[in-house]
Amino acid sequence: MEKKDKIKMESKLKESEVRYRRLFESAHDGILILDSETGQITDVNPFLIKLLGYSKAEFLNKKLWEVGAFRNMKAAKDVFRILQKDGYVRYEDLPLETKNGESVAVEFVSNSYLAGGTLVIQCNIRDITVRKRIEQINESKRLLEEEKLKVESIADATHELRTPIAIIKGNVDLAMKNGKGKYLKSPEKALKAINYEIKHLSGILADLSLITSKAWELKNRLFYEKVKLKSLVRTIVSRCKALSYEKNISITSKKIPDVEILGDKRYLEKMLINLVKNSIVYGCKNGHTVIDAKQSKGFITINVTDDGIGIKEEDLPHVFERFYRADKYQKYGGNSIGLGLAIVKWVAEVHGGEVSVTSVKNKKERGSIFSVKLPIKTSK
Questions:
Q1: How far is 373 from 304, CA to CA, in rounded Å?
Q2: End-to-end CA distance of the chain
Q3: pLDDT on residue 259
């Protein structure tokens, strides 16, 4: 190699080293350079010195786990061995301690590479304290909003429970009064009315119990059997026609494959009834609800389609949440307490399936499609 080329190469190498040093010194992340054989710190940048409060002298020529900030680092020596072997280690959220005893959350990424023919280990340390605080604030907001919804929903549930109890009390009073009057009822009529309200109460309490109990407790109560889908849908259509009478909503089924699902018939029925009931509550007068199913490899997808009011885009991600009610203050919601679709989700998932919803709401068309995807099984 000519002297001129050699000088040129040395100049470029020097420029490269100067650029690296500038980046090293001005980086907004902490950087440690370790000896790959011993684990001793050979260099540290100003950002990390400022972040942790140790002087450069307190870092240099010490092993990583000998610096106070890293003493709480879980199995630091084992981590170093992994670094030596695999050349890479990452901690998403590592708590470090400053010299003053304050906790600092960092992202710790370490990898090894060759520098001038020598294997070195570089540790990049990013301060994520602010990011974690923002995440904690957002999580606190979410939990507060969830609590607010729960409180509102408990109040709604209390109101809904109070109504049938008041009706029962009224019927008992009317049946027990002596004499004649326009509003007096015979014991037989009063008992029929009371029986209806008790069934309504029982349904509310069953929904509350189902959705607030621990999933594993309820899962153990499921009785699995082979359920014929066609027969199940036929039962749903028959039962729900009484619910759709007032709005004159037609309920029909089509293209139901002749398949069997392994599951608890009571809960599968409850799941589909809740979907059809939802389509009636949010449906329009003289509208229609259609139940169909499509079979794919190992799965059956059951769709309940209506031509009702549709669902707002901002409500779509939340409709399967407990106590969530879209169009809460509108007349369509009836006296729902927001458990029906949460129950649908729970039943689908406990049977190894999943739920989804799409909605159309524009000038030309509107309505919703609720889908339940379930595995087709032949044995337990």
A1: 12
A2: 77
A3: 92
Give the span between the Cα atoms of 344 and 342, in whole angstroms: 5
Residue 97 confidence (pLDDT): 80
- Angle at Cα 305 formed by Cα 267 and Cα 262, nearest 5°? 30
CB 113 within 8 A of CB 136: no
Q: What is the pTM of this model?
A: 0.50
CB 204 within 8 A of CB 222: no
Determine the length of the chain. 380
| All structural domains of the chain | 3-127 (3.30.450.20), 137-212 (1.10.287.130), 217-375 (3.30.565.10)
pLDDT on residue 330: 45
Contact in structure between 154 and 146 (CB atoms under 8 Å)? no
Residue 290: partners with Cβ closer than 8 Å, 6 or more residues away: 251, 252, 253, 254, 303, 304, 305, 306
Number of Cβ atoms within 10 Å of the Cβ of 275:
27
User: Cα–chain-centroid distance for residue 121?
Assistant: 39
Contacts 24+ apart (CB under 8 A), 48-57: 48/125, 51/98, 51/104, 51/125, 51/127, 52/96, 52/98, 52/99, 52/104, 53/98, 53/99, 53/100, 54/99
DSSP state of 256: -
- Which pLDDT score is estimated for 329? 38
What confidence score (pLDDT) does residue 331 get? 47
Other Cβ atoms within 10 Å of 297 Cβ, number: 5
Q: Which stretches of the chain score pLDDT less than 50?
A: 182-183, 216, 328-335, 379-380
The token pair that represents 277 in the structure block: 């009931």
Contacts of 7 (CB under 8 A, 6+ apart): none
Using CA atoms, how far apart are residues 236 and 222, in angstroms rounded to an integer? 20
Q: Classify residue 337 as exposed, middle or buried by CB count within 10 Å of its CB (0-12, 13-18, 19+).
A: buried
Helix (H) or strand (E) holding 91: strand 88-97
Instruction: For residues 301 and 259, give the distance between their C-alpha atoms in angstroms, rounded to a whole number.
Output: 11
